[in-house]
Amino acid sequence: MARPTRAEIDFDALRHNLAVARQAAPNSRIMAVVKANAYGHGLERVVQSLTDADGFGVACLEEALVIREAGVDKPVTLLEGFFEPDELLTISQEQLTLTLHHPWQIEALAKSELPQPVDVWLKIDTGMHRLGFQLDEAAEWQKKLEQLPQVASVGLMSHLACADSREDIHTANQLALFQQQTAASSLDKTLANSGGLLGWQETHLNWVRPGLMLYGISPFPETTGEQLGLKPAMTLRTKLISVRDLPAGSEIGYGATWTCPEPMRVGVAAVGYGDGYPRHAETGTPVLVNGHRAQLIGRVSMDMISLDLRGVPDAVIGDEVVLWGKGLPVEEVARHATTIPYELVCSVAPRVRIQTHGEVVLPPDTVGTVNVGC
Q1: Fewest CB atoms within 10 Å of the CB: 108, 233, 275, 349?
Q2: DSSP annotation string for 277-331
């Protein structure tokens, strides 16, 4: 019998969330961001399910090649560009789109011999100060790119630092700077991530780049995806492997950090930080046992967690436990673990079985390659 921990990936939810993005930005093309193994959901299967996307965004060449090998010929943008000049030949051959954020990349591109020119995005730093050309030098580099025979087309890109807060002035400031820099240009432009797409209509421009929202997760800390009309694309499940009645005073788990305040029923579920469940989840972190709320008690172990079953008196060995997903927002679990939902869904371990449309399969070998060098 296989270990019961599994991640259920809901293709219908993915498509629903893409439709929500399309409805929110009907005049923009959608670059679906599928980096980091599609936020832990499986790169190849997610791309093949999002057939209505206009293109895809990834972090590195390895991820882009998984998409091309899956037979997808839509635009694929390398959001960090290339890391070594010798990648440029493959990028050209596979007709991938480059994001260029530093002079060395443009200089390397200018020296390259490519079988066909490539499309590029020039990344402009409007205030995040992570990647991108300074405002006072962007126009000069844009002109150089437009003159290169290695370049087929140029677009203009920036990234929002604080779009997860709908009241933060930074987004309005970044938008104003980007518009000031690009107003005279007829080139394609892109600025909005999930937060911008759902919270700042003015940032939509020619392309929008939804990531987190595609997986049913809210970009805003004060809301859940469900409250925004999204559906969770991943549900992490396991089963109870032990149910015991323990006396008052029983100390639970490593470090004896929690003590039973009264005689009570305690369950053990087959999941732990070895599966990607957050080690720092605190006592009180919610789970669902047969659809009823219960809570974590004591420390998370590598392979197991202990649960307070006083609210689920009929629970027995083999009953299903939902860690996050349908019925239990991953945003809520992340708050109890003092982390963000991105980290939880991206951290599901390779040993966790993937279930799609009721069929249990091992993650495809190609998915593992996306972790190389990015």
Answers
A1: 349
A2: --TTPPTT-EEEETTEEEEEES---SS-EEEE-TT-TT--TT-EEEEEBTTB-HH
Per-residue pLDDT of the chain (374 residues; tens, 9 = 90+): 589 999 999 999 999 999 999 999 999 999 999 999 999 999 999 999 999 999 999 999 999 999 999 999 999 999 999 999 999 999 999 999 999 999 999 999 999 999 999 999 999 999 999 999 999 999 999 999 999 999 999 999 999 999 999 888 999 999 999 999 999 999 999 999 999 999 999 999 999 999 999 999 999 999 999 999 999 999 999 999 999 999 999 999 999 999 999 999 999 999 999 999 999 999 999 999 999 999 999 999 999 999 999 999 999 999 999 999 999 999 999 999 999 999 999 999 999 999 995 333 444 433 333 332 34
Do the beta carbons of residue 171 and residue 160 sit within 8 Å? yes
Model's pTM, two decimal places?
A: 0.93
- Distances in Å between the Cα of 269 and the Cα atoms of 170, 277, 293, 344, 351 are 43, 12, 14, 18, 16
Residue that has been written with the tokens 């093309």 in this structure: 29
Which one of 74, 143, 144, 254 is the catalytic residue? 254
Taking the C-alpha atoms of residue 23 and residue 18, their distance in angstroms, rounded to an integer, is: 9
Can you tell me the distance from the alpha carbon of 127 to that of 144, in angstroms, rounded to the nearest whole number? 23
Distance (Å, whole) CA 31 – CA 331 = 24
**Distances 113 to 60, 64, 97, 116, 239 between C-alpha atoms, Å:** 21, 21, 16, 9, 56
Torsion region of 6: left, alpha or beta (phi above 0 gives left; psi -120 to 50 gives alpha):
beta
Q: How many CB atoms lie within 10 A of CB 120?
A: 27
The CB-based long-range contact list for 242-247 (8 Å cut-off, 24+ gap) reads 242/267, 242/268, 242/317, 243/267, 243/268, 243/309, 243/315, 243/316, 243/317
Quick check: is 254 catalytic? yes
What is the rounded distance in angstroms from the CA atom of residue 31 to the CA atom of residue 207? 7
| Short-list 354, 70, 353, 324, CA closest to 216 | 324
**Rounded-to-integer distance, Cα 141 and Cα 146, Å:** 9
By the 8 A CB rule, do 115 and 95 touch?
Answer: no
Name the burial class of residue 312, with classes exposed (0-12), middle (13-18) and buried (19+) by CB atoms within 10 angstroms of its CB: buried
